Each structure stands twice: as structure tokens, then as C-alpha cells.
Amino acid sequence: xxxxxxxxxxxxxxxxxxxxGWILSGATARTGGLELVWAGLVExxxxxxxxxxxxxxxxxxxxxxxxxxxxxPGSLVAMLGEGMxxxxxxxxxxxxxxxxxxxxxxxxLALPVAVGAQRSLVLIKPDNFQFPGTRPGxxxxxxxxxxxxxxxxxxxxxxxxxxxxxxxxxxxxxAEKFGPEKGRDHWENIVEFMSGARPSAVPEKxxxxxxTQKILALVFEGPDAITKIxxxxxxxxxxxxxxxxxxxxxxxxxxxxxxHASDAPENAVREIGIVKVADNSLKGFVESVRASA
Length: 293
Description:
4-stranded antiparallel sheet, single chain, alpha+beta, globular
């Protein structure tokens, strides 16, 4: 198997138009399910661009074919137009190109929130990654319909320790509702769903290790971002969510409900810190690939 890396560069215009999710879904559908292994923002093509890195068999050839040209019916370029998305050509030095892009990586979270704006953290949950498919991109696409700018992305494997901290505030509410023992059991189920392991089954020394489940962390920023994002997300229970919301369309239960979104600006700050969205070094990713080659 020729297991390789390649990437898609989402142009500043396509990023501004909110097409990143559609492009992610389109690439997945046209490549037979290459694995998304890194995502973030870089300065390229004359502005802030999205970068989606994939791994899989013949990744370079598959993504180049998926991008295609204006004369290739069904390709991403034929559907979106020239200049909206690009990929390395066959024979390219992908690692070398990613190294150059790493020098231009954008850390928008280091900047203060714009006056009159809010930030909202979104987690596209592990149920969307259970099988290779278009769901992660489709969920992102619905969030993009809010019109809010996407200012950060990260492919993340939540550790048990992060899951315990992230969902720590939920534990008391569950204990009050179900009793201490059943409440704790429900809480451990949530942490296991997000990280891949139950806190009680993992030694403390191993709880900070990256988990086995994949999530895609996104940060949106803009006026009234919290309400706009949570409106398209829908209520926690998919059975009670309005048609067209993410949880109605993609959720199956109160826990397996497709996505999470911050419920207040101060919680967004807390959650972004726990998931370490800003700690998403493309340079570090490339160096780890080189080391394992």
C-alpha cells in the first residue's frame, strides 16, 4: 500500500464563503475516504486559507483527481470554479510544501476578540468519524451557514484528562439527577465516548495521553456567535431538535448527538483552553511525520 500524505488548500475566498465543509465532504466522497489528519489556517494564495491534510493510499493522486479542472465534470474545480481549492500535483514534494506552509501558519486565537464579537468552540464529535464518510464536512457545512468566520481548526484526540476537565461541570448535575453512583456512571460514559476510555479504567499516569477517538475542533467568531451556533446545532436531545438542525439530522441520542457548542463566551474560553486549539503546530506535525518515516 502506498500510504502517503497530501492536502487541500482552501482559498481565502472559499474560506470566506464558508465552503470548507463542502470541500471536505467533496474530497472524502471523491477519494474513497482518505483520513483527515491535520487541519488549520495558513497564509497562502494571498490571504488566510484553510489547510486540510489527508493520509491514505495514493493520497496525492486521489486528491489531485478530486480537485480536477474546469473541464473535468464532477471535480471540485468544475463545481466551485478556478482558484477556490488546490492540491499538490503527482510527483510533488508534499512534505516540503507542508514545511513551507508551516512557516505561514495563522494563530488567530492569539489576537483579542473583535469588539462586539464572541468566540464559540464547536466540537464535531467522534460519531461522525466512526466510518470514513462525508459527515464531518456536512456538519461543518451547516455551521458555516451561520455566516460566521472560521478562525481556527484542529484535528484532536481528546485525552481522558481533558475529557474529565471538559465535562467536569456536568458531573454534579448528573449526580443530582441520577444519584452519585449512576450519575458517575453516566459521566464516565460521556468521557469514554469522547476519548475512547473510562476514567476509572485508565491509570492516572496515562490519563493525559491522546485518546483513540477523533474530533474536529472549530472556533467561529463574530457578533452573537454563541446564539447563532447553538441555533443551528439544536437541543441536546435529537428527538426534540427542530428539522434542519445538526442534532436532528445527524444525532441519534442525547450523548451521541453529532456536535458540541459552547453555551456562553466564558465557557468558550475555558473549553478552547482545555482542547488546546491554539496548540496545533503544523511544523510539529510535519516533524513527527519525518521522524516516523
